[in-house]
Amino acid sequence: MNRIFILSLLLFLEFGSAQERLTPEVTLTKQPLLVLPAKGGDDPESIDAKVTAIVASKATELKRFEVIDRNHLEQLLKEQAIQMSGIVDDQSLVKFGKVASAPEALIVRVLNFGQKGVPPEDEKEEDRKDRKVARKAGLLGIIAKQVVDAAVDKATKDVERYPNNIQTILQAEVRKVDVETGKSIASFTINAGYTGGNKKASLAKTLMQVGRQVSNQLREMYLLTSEVLDVRGNEVMLLLGQEMGVQKGTVFEIASPEVKKILRDREITIPGRTVGIVRVTELSKDANRGRVLRKWDRIEPGYRAVESTRRIGSIDLQGFYSNNVPAYTLQAQLDIAPLDRISGAAHFNLGTVRDSRDDTDFRMGFGLSLQYKPIHTSSSALAAMITLPINLIIRSDDQYNSVALPVFSPEIGARTTVMLGPERDLILSVSYVFANVTGSWKYSKENDEGDTDTFPAVWKRRPAPEIDLRGLYFSVGMRFLSF
Fold it and tell me: Is the preceding omega at residue 389 within 30 degrees of 0, hence cis?
């Protein structure tokens, strides 16, 4: 027994001496970055130049690059007596990179661009009605409609028929390239479009979409890496601040340091374990302070912090039961800002409920809720909530028509969430439905013209069945988070 203990101790000491905790690599300086169009950049009014200008502008706004766009590069090339051609190839890219001292470049290529007028919705609806009339008139009516449409198209062939309802589509590619080798490192595509207004207005709306997509993609392509400087309870101080583009609300994923080990005479690096997420609440020029949103292990100084661009969301699955109604419900809920003190949610539910005739009716519904968490820690929360659901009760009337009854049943309640794992919570809740506002039983039927008419339900036995959802409800469920 003693021999086993001594041998285990020696192996542990040997293993410990063969590993080294690495200092996190931190984004400390802004990276020089070339932004160039693949072609067509000589004309500032060209779509290539406009998209390239947006990419350069959004990269500058992120504050993590020293952006060198075409205008700056042309000035540098003039000083070097080098001419810039309209098309960027690998050879010229290497030359430009050396002049600008930029290790990487973003090459912007417009793949597809077009603008054309399309019929507005009211005219489309009018055309659908005309076609419906033509179908009723038979074959001659359809032929007459086609002849008229062909004549109009021929007469307006070279005229823009819808100058105030322009549809713009734009597809582009942004490729990150190593300027020394000319090899592609990464890329992303842009797909934007807008319908409405004249050409200028439609293009402006489309380019706004381009800007939003470029900003998100560039942030994902160049994530900031920081380091935990200090930890005090649920407050964490991180390196990097406004100078590097950190903003209030920026989320960092915290991980333990990487470890370097010698295994069979080979040096390997083992990645650290993710232990929590932090949201920035205060900023200075070079540092920031954040609040721990969620943690499942200790956060210590020296830990690595990597910017996260993913939205924090969650889906809840809950089962509800009420003995006094009685009713059973299975609910799926999509939470909005689930880790904030104030959050909202949208839900959809399916279930059953007993009516005044003691029949079991099918129930489906949707609604919105608002939650406030007076107690909110990194691993649990207690929330007060108000929910505004609209339910649809479905059954058959006395003539076997499938009828539906809308019911508005607002409720108040409380719920607690307890962390079971990094991305899973247990949910327990209690709620009280304090009002029950019902409509009338109705069913729908298609008429001879293809339209849908609504009729009141037929009840041979009086009174009509009633639904009362007021009462106390209990639920248990699971929450699945993504971040």
Answer: no
Task: Say whether both 398 and 451 belong to one domain.
Answer: yes
The structure tokens listed for 279 are 């949201």
Give CA–CA dist 350/243, Å, rounded. Answer: 51
- Can you give the CATH number for the domain in which 434 is found? 2.40.160.70
237 and 330 fall within a common domain: no
Q: How many Cβ atoms sit within 10 Å of the Cβ of residue 422?
A: 15
Question: Helices 90-100 & 70-79, crossing angle to 10 degrees?
Answer: 80
> Within a domain: residue 387?
yes
User: What six digits make up the tokens of 166?
Assistant: 């322009």
Domain edge (last residue) among 289, 308, 327: 308
pTM beyond 0.85: no
The answer as to whether 405 is a domain residue is yes
Q: Check whether the bond before 326 is cis (ω within 30° of 0).
A: yes
Tens place of pLDDT per residue across the chain (483 aa)? 455 444 444 444 444 445 566 566 788 888 888 888 877 556 778 898 899 999 999 999 999 888 876 666 665 555 454 455 555 555 565 566 555 567 888 889 999 999 998 888 665 555 555 555 545 555 555 565 555 555 555 555 555 678 889 999 999 999 998 887 778 889 999 999 999 999 999 999 999 999 999 999 999 888 999 999 999 989 999 999 999 989 999 999 999 988 877 777 788 878 889 999 999 999 999 999 999 999 999 999 999 999 998 889 999 999 999 878 888 999 999 999 999 999 999 999 999 999 999 999 999 999 999 999 999 999 999 999 999 999 999 999 999 999 999 999 999 999 999 999 999 999 999 999 999 999 999 999 887 777 788 999 999 888 999 999 999 999 999 999 998
| Domain span at 151 | 119-155
Spatial separation of the C-alpha atoms in residues 53 and 34, rounded to whole Å: 12
Q: What CATH number corresponds to the domain at position 289?
A: 2.40.10.410
Burial 211-227 (b: 16+ CB within 10 A, else e): bebbbebbbebbebbbb
Any domain includes 38 = yes
Sign of CA dihedral 448, 450, 453, 457: positive
Q: Same structural domain for residues 281 and 195?
A: no
Do 380 and 477 reside in the same domain of the chain? yes
